[in-house]
TrEMBL record:
It is a multi-pass membrane protein. Belongs to the binding-protein-dependent transport system permease family. PANTHER family: ABC TRANSPORTER PERMEASE PROTEIN MG189-RELATED-RELATED, POLYGALACTURONAN_RHAMNOGALACTURONAN TRANSPORT SYSTEM PERMEASE PROTEIN YTCP. GO terms for biological process: transmembrane transport. Keywords: Cell membrane, Membrane, Transmembrane, Transmembrane helix, Transport. This is L-arabinose transport system permease protein AraQ. Residues 82-290 form the ABC transmembrane type-1 domain. It is found in: Cell membrane. The keyword Ribonucleoprotein does not apply. Its main location: membrane.
Length: 305
């Protein structure tokens, strides 16, 4: 048997060919399992809503229709919500990465007095929280209710992101900053011109986390800005649309005010599929540009030579 697997076909052994074939089949199977639910959701979203009730939609729409998407975008606040979502995601990502990396750099410096105690203080906040009601009164006392700042400032510091960036910085050779300081550079210059460029992988990873978190957030809009239509977000509007569809069956007139006309052309299933795709597309567009840094950033940030 051992000699059988050692038979060569060209430059490759039969055992190696068998391994690559089986490995390829398994990987294709895994890819299909991972992608099929999303692809099926796309097919359902582009299928006629009434026809979808029959079931049996797999890879392709049986009766093609874009009315589910038209129904989603008929909401008059959808344009304002989209602008607010993009703006909050951009600001939360940029400021979150900047503030997180600044704190991580400071905590990574051995000369910082009380470094361990400060780190423990940050870690405690990951496990102990005041709760929803105290947070609400804090936001209210800070004057951020129905203000755009409520989308950015409360989530500006993420302890988990700080720890990840700090671990990455500590994995860098100390000689980089020591040489710069010998030449007269201060801490801010070391951070901005030396450490930050070396942290591109982990910063891209953290940026992706911040962007996904900010884009998918709707609960803070519900709590702190539901009284201001000009501050509504895309996820919040879609949540209202989906909730209305699920609660009132096919009747979406509570949002669109179109009586039973729309009720005959959309269903909770079709609306849910369309909302899922609309909410996912922006992140799917951004992710490929950051994916090459993702695994590298997390892996290097978790080890230290």
């Amino acid at each position: 048997m051992r000699n059988f697997w050692s038979i060569r076909i060209g430059r490759f052994r039969l055992g190696d060919i068998f391994f690559h074939v089986i490995n390829g089949i398994i990987m294709v199977f895994v890819i299909v399992i991972m992608l099929y639910p999303f692809w099926n959701t796309i097919a359902v979203s582009f299928n006629d809503a009434q026809d979808t009730l029959r079931g049996g939609i797999t890879f392709w729409p049986r009766v093609f229709s874009t009315y589910s998407y038209k129904s989603v975008f008929k909401n008059k606040l959808m344009g304002t919500a989209a602008v607010n979502s993009v703006l909050r995601t951009a600001l939360s990502t940029i400021l979150g990465v900047l503030v997180g990396s600044l704190i991580a750099y400071v905590l990574s410096r051995k000369e910082l007095v009380g470094r361990k105690a400060i780190t423990v203080y940050f870690l405690v906040t990951m496990y102990i929280s005041a709760g929803l009601i105290p947070n609400y009164f804090l936001i209210k006392n800070l004057g951020m209710l129905n203000k755009f700042a409520v989308y950015v400032i409360p989530g500006l510091v993420s302890v988990y992101n700080i720890i990840v960036i700090k671990s990455f910085i500590q994995s860098l050779p100390e000689s980089l900053t020591e040489a710069a300081m010998v030449d007269g550079a201060g801490h801010f210059r070391c951070y901005w011109q030396i450490v930050l460029p070396c942290c591109k992988p982990v910063l891209a990873t953290v940026a992706l986390w911040c962007a996904v978190g900010a884009w998918n957030q709707w609960f803070d809009t519900f709590l702190y800005a539901s009284g201001a239509d000009h501050l509504t977000t895309l996820q919040y509007e879609m949540m209202k649309l989906l909730s209305s569809a699920m609660q009132s069956g096919r009747d979406l007139s509570s949002i669109y005010g179109e009586g039973q006309q729309m009720a005959n052309t959309v269903t909770p299933t079709s609306i849910r599929a369309a909302v899922t795709i609309v909410a996912s597309v922006p992140i799917l567009i951004v992710y490929p540009f950051l994916q090459k840094y993702f695994v590298k950033g997390v892996t290097l940030g978790a080890t230290k030579e």
